[in-house]
């Protein structure tokens, strides 16, 4: 038991002497030093109080005594090392105490060696944390506080970790656009020339006339959006043409149409927007026209007069012929302007000074070159009170078909 203990003390003393002989900048950590941040005792076992021992330690002799024994140092040793301490002689015990004091001073808090060890440990920990970072805590998502999902996490979870092995979303979008352009270029090079085999000579459409297409349909389309007015369909036809094709009386169709017949242009106009689609509204108008033709075949309504009170004719005002600019009227206007400008030109030639505005007005008041137009004379006459008939107003009567 004493031999290993002596060997450990010798190695510790030799290590301390070597460590002190090295420079501070290149001093290395001895292999026999335990990896720790603070000072520790010479042994690695736990402390035990002296009172726990069954056999009492002998009394501490003096330093000069041949049987040297340090009771305080003996109490600081572990139970496994105390037996070896008893086997040592006085010189070896003093040597062991010096080694213990040197170790405590070397590894004490705040010593240069302790600070160097702490710096090395901090550097190693930082390198390990950088090389192997800890996984971030899982994100719980953004909470949307509302009446229906109060306190519930968002359905969309956090984004996946980008592993630096792929391009970004913008890069993928650029590649997709590049693929589309290449596809269009391939179509233009390889498939477009094949369309020349399907070319045909242009022939303008030839209309067979009103007899072949008596019904004129009108639709309303809103490009790019759905509009309620797009379902409306309007049909317009002439009773004379439809009656000649169907073999019925045009008068009967006019009377059956009622206010939908316009006597000014002789057409029947109907519309429908009661259904959801244009096809359904067009089908309804076609059925209505078939019903009108069937009713006109059974009864011609010869005893029923045609009611056109719903039509209000609008008078058309024409520009009077007397107001039109003719060669004779232009010559008269030029002569009038020359008669007005001649006195001022003559005054300027006589060097009478600048023309006065008051004098020019006086000269114009003396001249009476205005020409009375006959139609203007009629316009100045007062109109008689009361209502006047269409003949007195100059309106033409409506031509009934």
From TrEMBL:
GO terms for molecular function: structural constituent of ribosome. Residues 382-401 have a biased composition (Low complexity). GO terms for biological process: mitochondrial translation. Residues 210-323 form the Small ribosomal subunit protein mS35 mitochondrial conserved domain. Residues 1-23, 379-401 are annotated as: Disordered. It comes from the Eukaryota. Transmembrane segments: none annotated. One of its GO terms (cellular component) is mitochondrial small ribosomal subunit. This is Small ribosomal subunit protein mS35 mitochondrial conserved domain-containing protein. It comes from Polychaeton citri CBS 116435.
């Amino acid at each position: 038991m004493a031999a290993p203990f002596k060997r450990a003390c010798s190695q510790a003393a030799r290590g301390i002497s070597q460590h002190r002989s090295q420079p501070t900048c290149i001093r290395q950590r001895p292999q026999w030093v335990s990896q720790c941040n603070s000072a520790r005792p010479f042994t690695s076992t736990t402390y035990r109080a002296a009172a726990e021992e069954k056999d009492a330690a002998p009394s501490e002799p003096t330093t000069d005594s041949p049987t040297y024994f340090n009771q305080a140092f003996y109490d600081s040793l572990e139970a496994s090392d105390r037996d070896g301490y008893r086997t040592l002689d006085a010189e070896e015990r003093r040597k062991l105490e010096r080694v213990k004091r040197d170790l405590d001073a070397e590894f004490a808090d705040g010593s240069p060696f302790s600070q160097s060890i702490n710096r090395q440990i901090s550097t190693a920990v930082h390198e390990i944390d950088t090389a192997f970072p800890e996984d971030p805590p899982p994100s719980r998502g953004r909470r949307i506080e509302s009446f229906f999902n109060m306190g519930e996490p968002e359905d969309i979870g956090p984004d996946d970790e980008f592993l630096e092995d792929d391009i970004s979303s913008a890069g993928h979008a650029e590649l997709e656009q590049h693929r589309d352009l290449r596809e269009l270029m391939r179509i233009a090079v390889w498939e477009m020339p094949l369309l020349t085999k399907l070319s045909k000579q242009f022939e303008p459409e030839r209309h067979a006339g009103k007899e072949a297409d008596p019904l004129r349909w009108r639709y309303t389309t809103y490009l790019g959006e759905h509009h309620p007015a797009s379902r409306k369909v309007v049909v317009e036809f002439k009773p004379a043409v439809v009656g000649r094709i169907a073999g019925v009386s045009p008068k009967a169709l006019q009377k059956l149409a009622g206010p939908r017949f316009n006597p000014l242009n002789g057409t029947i106009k109907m519309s429908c927007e009661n259904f959801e689609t244009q096809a359904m509204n067009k089908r309804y108008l076609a059925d209505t026209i078939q019903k009108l033709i069937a009713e006109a075949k059974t009864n011609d309504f010869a005893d029923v007069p045609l009611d056109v009170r719903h039509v209000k004719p609008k008078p058309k005002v024409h520009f009077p012929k007397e107001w039109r600019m003719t060669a004779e009227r232009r010559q008269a206007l030029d002569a009038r302007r020359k008669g007005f400008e001649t006195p001022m030109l003559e005054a300027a030639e006589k060097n009478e000074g600048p023309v006065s505005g008051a004098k020019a007005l006086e000269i114009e008041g003396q001249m009476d070159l205005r020409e009375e137009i006959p139609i203007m004379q009629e316009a100045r006459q007062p109109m008689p009170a009361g209502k006047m008939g269409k003949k007195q107003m100059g309106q033409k009567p409506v031509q009934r078909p």
